[in-house]
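YjjG family noncanonical pyrimidine nucleotidase structure dump, as promised
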Amino acid sequence: MKLNEVTDVFFDLDHTLWDFERNSALAFNEIFNKQKLDLNLDDFMKVYKPINFRYWELYRNNSVTKEALRFGRLKESFDALQFEACDATINLIANDYIEYLPKNNHLLEGSKELLTNLHKRYKLHIITNGFEEVQHLKMRNSGIQEYFSTVTTSEEAGVKKPHPQIFEKALIKSSAVAQNSVMIGDNLEADIVGASKFGFHVIYLNPDREVGQHQFAEIQKLKEVLNYL
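structure tokens r here:
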């Protein structure tokens, strides 16, 4: 079903356009080689992924600081693998990770094609909970910055999705109105429920088909956005 009267399309960045899992693994691989750490990357990523997800939930709910997130997700991952690393080493890896992460430029399948198509017909924007200092680098290095009229980060807004204030900030910044806007993202609570409560149309990117009760438009691949726009 096509969404009518849409003028502005808002995207989440990580896990929606930017291939966070792939780029993250590449960054850690480079860091582990640099530090000569005897760690199997696949084993590490298997434990790191759910721990990182949980820490981002805590960060979104203001239960941990940015610094605690960066340290804690590594500390718990190493502990789960029974890999001994002192606090100084963990802090070094955490700092290297922020530096290395935006050097990798892989996008999720269909991102560029979709953005090229939509850019001809809509104003495009980003709303992200990611850290201010790396999100713009990710966009520039992956070659998608030129598609977007505005980028609103949680650090700029002072609150994180799904707080209504970040959506309000994004609308003011873009001169858009919620009724004529659609939010596309992979996080049901932060992106979809949050934007919907503020009056946006929403499209939920759910590639793993995670089961949950909701009434929102849902897609498994980015190209399916064109079924609605």
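The CA atoms of residues 71 and 90 lie 7 Å apart.
lmk if u need the other ones
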